[in-house]
């Protein structure tokens, strides 16, 4: 069964001087301020499309990795993933770096690396962002 999730953006003014909000409407968990300076310079308490992509990607990847590991008979104890989305004004998003650390009893570092690469390739957000270079740093912790 398909699901649809919705976010609503509201913007006022020009790109450089304006500002707006993004509402996570499906979950109802919040409305967050956005602005060009928050996107191209310092966040200063506001979010950006790139931060929202990073949130989506780190979560999706963690879920895909957990699912793959459990399906292989080696469920993880913990999976912690960060996604760094690089944005260059005038160019756009130039890359995404996924960094994952996970505790997976009974797995070697090589097996974990392979599982992480598979999750990166098969995570729906990675697939949606296939036009962007995505790199991976995977560390197995005990």
Helix amount, in percent?
A: 25-40%
Uncertain regions spanning at least 5 consecutive residues: none
Distance between the termini: 37 Å
Task: Give the biggest sheet.
Answer: 3 strands, antiparallel
Kindly name the structural category.
alpha+beta
Q: What sort of overall outline do the alpha carbons produce when their principal axes are compared?
A: elongated
SSE sequence, one letter per element = EEEHHEEHHE
Radius of gyration: 17 Å
Q: Strand order of the main beta sheet, please? A: 1-2-3
Number of strands: 6
Beta-strand percentage? 25-35%
Mean pLDDT: 97
In DSSP terms (H or I, runs of 4 or more residues), the helix count works out at 4
From the structure provided, what is the oligomeric state, counting identical versus distinct chains?
Answer: single chain
Q: In terms of topology, how is this protein built?
A:
Layout: E1 7-12, E2 19-24, E3 30-35, H1 36-40, H2 49-71, E4 78-88, E5 92-103, H3 109-122, H4 124-128, E6 134-141
Parallel strand pairs: 5-6
Antiparallel strand pairs: 1-2, 2-3, 4-5
Helix pairs in contact: 2-3
